[in-house]
C-alpha cells in the first residue's frame, strides 16, 4: 500500500513501529488470502461481466485504504506524541537527579580532601589512640560505602538517561516517518478522489440504469447471501479448529502432568528401596562389629529373601514415554475468525442496540425496491464521511469491496449473528479486528455505484436477514 520511501525510517533507521507493522501485516496475510479465495468463489458464479460499478472498485478501495491509513496514522501520531512528552518529563527528572548526585559526590570528595585524605594504612601506623583509630577507620568505611552507593546510583541514572535519549530519538524518528506517510497518503487520496469523480461522470447514466435493473438487484442479494453463508461456514470450521486445538493442548498438559507424577512416584519408590537396603546393610555392619559374626536381622514376614543371596533393591520400571503429541501452536490466521463474543450475548441486546450512525432512514426493511426484490436491510441517508459505528461487540470477518455494496464491512457477534455495513466511503477496521459497541468502523459514502450517500445496514442470523427495527433504536 505504501511506497518503500514511506515505510523506510529516516536516515535508514529501523524504528520499533516499522518492525511492529511488518509483524502485523505478516499475521494478516494468511487470513486475507482465505477471504480473497472466498470472494473469488462467489464471483465465479456471476453472469454480469460489464457492471459499471466494477470500474469504480479499484478507485473506491484505494480511497478506503488511504482514509484508513490516515486515521491510523493520526492515532499513531497522537500516541507517539504522548510517549514523547512522557520521555521528555522523565529526561528532565533524570537530569535533575544526576545533577544532584554529582553535587553530592563532589561534596564527599571535597570533604575527604580537606580531611587530609588519610587512608587506612596511615591511620594504623600513626601510633595514635587505638579508639580514635578504630573510630576513624569506621568513619572511612561509612564514607567509602556512601561513595560506592552514590557512584552506582549515578551510573544507573546515567545509563537511564542514555536509554531515555535513545527512546526519545526513536519516537522522533517515528513521528517523522508518520508525517512522511501522511503526506503520501493525502496525495494519494486526492488523486484517487479525482479519478473516481471522473469515472462517475463518464458512467453516470449506465450506473443509474443498472442500479434499477431487477436482475442486478437480485444478483446483489444472492451475492450477499452467498458471502454470509460462506463466512458462517468458515467461522464454524475455525471455531471447531480452535476448540480442537484447545483440547489437544489440554491433552498435552495432562500427559505431561501424568508423566511427571509417574516419574516422581518411581523416584520415591526407588528412594524407599535404597533406604531399606542401606538400613539392612547398616544393621549387618552393626551386628558384625558387636560379635564378630553377622547376626541376621529379625525376619520381616512381608519380605521373602533368600538367605543365600544378598538383599536386592526392588527394581523400579521407568515411566513409559508418553505418546508423541504435536505441540506446534495453531497459527493466528487459523483462528482469527473465532467469535469474539460468547453465544447469546448479542441476542440479549434486542431492542437496546444504538443506531450505527446518525441520519434519516430512507428505506426500511421489507419495502419494495422498484421492480426488484424488497430491501433486506435499511438505508440511512447521511453526508459523506459520517462515522459508522459497530452496533455491538464482535470481530470483523469481512472488510473489502463487494459488487452491489461497495466498501463493505461485516462484524460477527457470536451465536451466528452478524451486522452488515455497506456503501461506505472508507473501512476503518480490518479483517480479524475486535471491536466494541460504538467503535467507529467505517465512514459513510456512496461506493458501489449507489446514487445517494449514506449507509446500507443489515442484521442477519444463521445467514437470514431480519428486520433490525425491533433491535436497533434508529
Automatic annotation (TrEMBL):
Pfam families: Peptidase_M23 (PF01551). Residues 14-28, 38-60 have a biased composition (Basic and acidic residues). It comes from the Bacteria. CDD domains: M23_peptidase. GO terms for molecular function: metalloendopeptidase activity. Residues 375-468 form the M23ase beta-sheet core domain. Residues 1-60, 289-308 are annotated as: Disordered. InterPro entries: Cell_wall_metabolism_enzyme, Dup_hybrid_motif, M23ase_b-sheet_dom. SUPFAM superfamilies: Duplicated hybrid motif. Residues 151-237 form a coiled coil. This is Peptidoglycan DD-metalloendopeptidase family protein. It comes from Duganella alba. The lineage of its organism: Bacteria, Pseudomonadati, Pseudomonadota, Betaproteobacteria, Burkholderiales.
